[in-house]
Amino acid sequence: MATRQLAYDQSSNTYGKSYDVFLSFKSEDTGKNFTNHLSRALNQAGYRTFEGGDDNNESRREEEINSELFKAIQDSKMCIIVFSQDYASSSWCLDQLVSILEYKMKFACMILPIFYHVDPSNLRKHKGSFGEALNRHEEKFKCERVDEKEYWEDKLKKWKDALSQAADLAGMVLENQHESTFINKIINVISTRLSRPALYIASCSIGIHRRARPINSWVQDDGSNNSNIGILLVCGIGGIGKTTLAKFVYNLNFGYFEISCFLANIRETSKLPNGLIALQKQLLSILLKNEKAKISSVDEGIIKIRNALCYRKVLLVLDDVDEPDLVEAIFDMKDWFGFGSKIIVTTRHKSLLRPQLGHEVHEVGILYTVEANELFNFHAFGHENNQISKDYYKEYLEEVIEWCRGLPLALQVIGSSLAGKSKDVWRSAIEKLREIPTNKIVEKLRLSYELLEDDHDQNLFLHLCCFFVGMKKDFVVRILDKCDFYTLVGIQNLIDRSLVTIEFVNEITIHQLVRDMGRDIVRREATVDPGKRTRLWHHTDSYNVLTGKTGTERVQGMVLDMRMIKKDKCCSSLIPLKQSPIGFFTAWSSKVGNFSLQDHVRTDAFEKMHKLKFLQFNKVQVNGSYKNFPKGLRWLCWSGFPEECIPNEFPMGNVVSIDMRYSSLKQLWNGYKFLQYLEILDLSHSSELITTPDFSGLTNLEKLILEHCTKLINVHNTVGCLQKLMILNLKDCHKLKILPDSICELKCLETLNISGCSNIEYLPTELDKLTSLKELYADGISMINLEAQTWYSSLWAWAWKGRGPLLSPKIHFPKSLHVLNIAKCNLSPDAFNNVDLGIMTSLQWLDLGGNPIDELPDSIKNLTRLKTLNIAYCTKIKHLEGVPSNVTDVNADGCISLEKVGSCAKGHPVEGYLNCINLVEVEGVFKLEPLDSVDPQVLANKMGISNLETIMRSSMVSLVFGRAYDAERLRNEYPGHVQDDITNLFSLSPKKLPPQILYHRGVFSTFLPGESVPNWFSYKFTDAAEAYCTLPNNFNSHKTINGLSICFVYKCPEPYTNVGLYDGPAIWVRNQTKDLNWALYPAWFGLPQDDQTGIMWLSYWKVNNLFEQGDIIEVMGSPQFAEFKELGVKIFYIANDEQTENYDPFEDILRNEFSDEERTYYICT
User: Fold this and answer.
1) In the β-sheet with 1066-1071, what is the strand arrangement from edge to edge?
2) Where is the TIR domain (predicted)?
């Protein structure tokens, strides 16, 4: 079904217009018959009509169109365009069409296309008489002066775009009926549309077409449900644009329903005395065609509305609904709506309706960045959008737009408030926004908070805003459940209200303005004295409360990061390092001058904070006794803890999580501690930690994180007492020598990470008894020091100095593993002979990278669930065979000896083979072989190569693998033998070979010496690396377009001396008509020899069924490192009953692998 499109502005008010209808038509075609009768019928029906026929006057100047014609269009409530067979032959008509559609995009001009004995698809595809007329115009323009060429090309493109756009508008087609009957139907449609005024929509509704598209498509889809009525819930936070979108879609579609009704502000109206009855009266009045409705009770209203519906097709919009009871009665009578009826409900509550209703939900998203910029600039700088003004405020624009985060309301309010203000005011306003959000925005957003069902959800929301944004949902639930919250159901309620979202990485996400609204609610608890607030999320407030000792028992949580205390006289000598991606937990410079906080922050500042549950400190130094420290702490997060040992009097009896990353601890505490609630202990990056404590009192510990504790020597044997431990992370503990045997007693352990423990000397002998272990990371371990008595000796004994390989039984990793990483362990092929990978039937991810293996272990073929295989920088592998068919992701980056990848890896993306500089075939993806292996007839017919023998005898071409890059940064992460191999990689010269043929999926290419595009090509372009051409539509209808040949000539500005220096060239092909794109980045590309100056890249693209007559095709050559010289294109046709040539071993270029966003297929990228 054609999609109706329309944009509305304040100027859309149809009152005060000079004309009701603007009539556009080709006079010679319809002026004396159909259009004449239509115009007379319009006048008889009382509609003032302006006739915009061409009157055979092609000589009238364009200025007349821009003045007289555009004024008439602007003064008309509606435009009717009569498309007849010869319509496109008139440039006057085409200019009219462009003007109408341009006006339509800005203002509320309803458009009704009439297809008079015309197929709408001919407009869209520029076929039939429309294609022929456009071709005549194009030939005429070629005769114009050279200096006007660009002007006429732009005009032709506008005409084509306008015809395609008009074809997509919902119109009326004359076919198999009397003209008089058809004209009566037109009059009825016009009467319906003009009798219902469109709803007002504010000016500059940026992005509204894109955002409304899914809603509009749903409204126009009669087959979207199996019942008479479709129900769509449009939800989102306040200020996101729900009502505006609903109005926009209503305006597009109300003329296509028997009854249309937009009930606004339902939530507010329902609060008034008899508010629900007032809404029923409003709806009933519309159903009864403006008859005054009398209703004395809600039940009576339900009965009268049901009777008035009478199975009619209805479009009903219920705006701003919050209580399901307000609309349930309407849905209970849905069987009385006519087939095709649609109900749209806008709400902040995603779970407003019962699932049994079978409704659909559409969540309104924020504006794209470019849309946000445009909307803000419109309100800040006016309609002119002055570039000089934008440049003047450039230093502030990005920050303020970023603060708005795509929320239309914020962009409008902030933009308008800053309009015409000086730079100083802009700067001051931005500083205020950081601390105190704009009241108008807060009040709009706060409504969602106030509509939460109870104070439980409100308090949960405020906790999330102040302390938990960006944190993992599981962690938040773990902490807050211990604070008497019902966290899971509470978070779901917040999600339903669009206050919180859970990102794909399971993180708590809150729109920045919604977060600021929550924090502002806390700020208003005590605007002057922050110590009386429930939550101290602002670092300066926390610092002042602690140094002033003004904290009260109301304080439940506190955040203080000393990096955020800037320009304060008490901490001006602090020297923070640049923040790393881990944010709050960032290493600090040890050079903090002579300043110390111990004179300012003392433990007695916490004595009144009896309700303190959350403490987030970073590099805060506190002096005094912890005897009276708050005892109700649940979350102790103290990055950079300054003590060497946690004092014994520190109250931790209720703590659920201790997070002391980057601490100065040498030991955690003295002796034994019973902490029954502790579930997480994170001491990562505590570079002074030597040993771990007695764990026997931590009976509920689930996560133990000791990553990068570089001085840690051993782990206490009581670690085996942690029967609930699920994660043990010892990554990069470089001095760790022993893992205790008691680790094998951890029956719940799921993840063990010993990566980078390069000095480990002993591993437990029974790790295979860890029956719950799912992930084992052991990459980068030095196996030379492992004792021969361990079962690992059979795996790594070959590497021992002074010893030969040992004959040992098969090695059994835990069968339960899903992830195994044994990369960079210097494992030889002999070592892998003793590894039985096949028993790990659940394994999904395997990393063998950086090991000196020359082939994959045989047992890998039994891994039927394996999805990801990493063999990066296995520099000895030449042939990759035996990869299980279920593997979808192979990373062979840096396998510089690899020559061929077998069919087992068919379909794997080529980006997995970076720096494989000898790779000539990935079966089913690409293949490089001599040019003379191809049928000479095919080369002659498809690429214009008729002298194959001469070319093979006299030409040599330098070829470079197109997936090479400088891996200097990566190579230092791998063992010595890998580093040596990679060192030689970038000193290699390009391969000098006879001409080769390069196959890709549906494309084959060759690179030959050449300076220009051969005359064999139909189209030739020399002034730009872009080519636009319209596929002819006047050839035999029994033929279809089968392929394209492309010739891209480029030259190198300087000698190309080694691999990995530049990106290779690329060709883009775009079917503008169908919005399909292909990008070809060749696996190999050619370079000129010393005595050559140019390379001619010839390629043939097999495009069966993807291109049609009249399609607009764009071909672009991207030379990357090189310089563009010329571009040529030739089109091939095939008879419908002719067999496709059998020259290509691969399928056609694909059309079923496009993403909805990009609509682009990357060939061998």
Assistant:
1) 1026-1030, 1112-1118, 1066-1071, 1076-1080, 1160-1163
2) 17-194
| Cα 285 from Cα 836, distance rounded (Å) | 78
Domain with CATH 3.40.50.300 in the chain: 208-363
DSSP letters of 711-743?
Answer: T--B--GGGGG-TT--EEE-TT-TT--B--GGG
- Fold observed for domain 10-195: Rossmann fold (3.40.50)
- Which residues of the chain form CATH 3.40.50.10140? 10-195
d(CA 686, CA 666): 8
Do β-strands 1160-1163 and 1076-1080 pair in parallel, antiparallel, or remain unpaired?
Answer: parallel
What six digits make up the tokens of 1084?
Answer: 């190999």
Greatest C-alpha distance within the chain: 109
Q: Which of 870, 917, 912 is nearest to 898 (CA)?
A: 917
- Could you give the dihedral angle defined by the CA atoms of residues 1044, 1045, 1051 and 1055, in that order, rounded to the nearest 10 degrees? 100
Q: Between 1138 and 455, where is the model more confident?
A: 455
Q: What is the spatial distance between Cα 334 and Cα 735, in angstroms, rounded to a whole number?
A: 72
pLDDT tens-digit map of 995-1021: 899 988 778 899 998 889 998 888 888
For residue 619, CA distances in Å to 571, 587, 682 come to 12, 9, 16
Separation CA 112–CA 623 (nearest Å): 79
C-alpha 598: how far from chain center: 47
Amino acid, single-letter form, for residue 1095 = I
Burial class (CB in 10 A: 0-12, 13-18, 19+), 1087: buried
Does domain 208-363 sit in CATH 3.30.1330.80? Answer: no
Which token pair is 838? 């096949």
Other beta carbons within 10 angstroms of residue 367's beta carbon come to 25
